[in-house]
Amino acid sequence: MSGLVTLALTAGEPAGIGPELCLGLAARPRETGIVIVASKALLATRAASMGLDVKLCDWQPGQRPETREGCLSVLSVDGCVSMDAGRLEPANSHYVLETLKTAARGCLDGEFDGMVTAPVHKGVINEARIPFSGHTEFLQELCGVDRVVMMLATDELRVALVTTHLPLKDVSAAITPERITQVTRILAADLRTFFGIERPHILVAGLNPHAGEGGHLGREEIEIIEPTLARLRQEGIRLTGPLPADTLFTPHWLNDADAVLAMYHDQGLPVLKFQGFGRAVNITLGLPIVRTSVDHGTALDLAGTGRADAGSLHTAIRVGAQMARCRKAANQENRP
């Protein structure tokens, strides 16, 4: 699975640390081709304010991206009206979303092998009166797919979610046989396609404490989760559960698992982020494109200081490139 792959990297919220994390990539040569999708003026302004000597090269489709130290390829997007580090500006929201559209469309058109996203600020986008719940849902709509799956991963642990950005009071109603079935099928299929795991073993968490305690602490496990998992096992998917979430994340279970499927956001992600914050990657499964992201937010207080940790971005790029290569290899094997 060798060879150069090209990833689009969106710089995220202009006031946050995304632009400088992107600029930091120029500090060393790169094995993966990276095209920064952002305002070239924003990148130049941030570089100048931080005393960074980076050559920003305009990129055109079909060109080989710069991989030399000190140079970055940029696909410039207009519309960034405020470039001040640490100061949010709602008027930048349309520009931020345009960078995502540009990168995603480039992936769909075959110009890029995948996309990596630096953090955006959901609050300021909504302040601009643009409904936005996150990258995952935005890319789902843009790519026209019925269901996507959010999965965060470190080298040791993968956690996917049945529900994502929902208020806790709405989670139970969203745990339906249809949703569990769709999410599980996507997770199993993409673990094969993007990670080369021929028959992945997935641990499934229950919704309630102690996985419902035999119905005494909730009946979702008995009435919804268990029957759905039984049907999925008949399709050949290796599933264990539903398991109590408070003991699932232990070596006894994890040593023989390829991924964990949690029922809701804060059931699975606190464990993963405690285990690997700063070196984890956010992955969107179920898309027709490769998409990875950092595991942190915009960090407005660090923007422009040079103290932001780029570890998660490097992980997102490395995993995105691995996924792209794995998919290329799978496509070549499936060709007649």
Automatic annotation (TrEMBL):
The gene is pdxA. Its cofactor is Zn(2+); Mg(2+); Co(2+). This is 4-hydroxythreonine-4-phosphate dehydrogenase. It comes from Marinobacter salinus. Substrate binds at H135, T136, K273, N282, R291. Binds 1 divalent metal cation per subunit. Can use ions such as Zn(2+), Mg(2+) or Co(2+). PANTHER family: 4-HYDROXYTHREONINE-4-PHOSPHATE DEHYDROGENASE (PTHR30004:SF5). Its EC number is 1.1.1.262. One of its GO terms (cellular component) is cytoplasm. The lineage of its organism: Bacteria, Pseudomonadati, Pseudomonadota, Gammaproteobacteria, Pseudomonadales. Belongs to the PdxA family. It is an enzyme of class 1 (oxidoreductase). Homodimer.
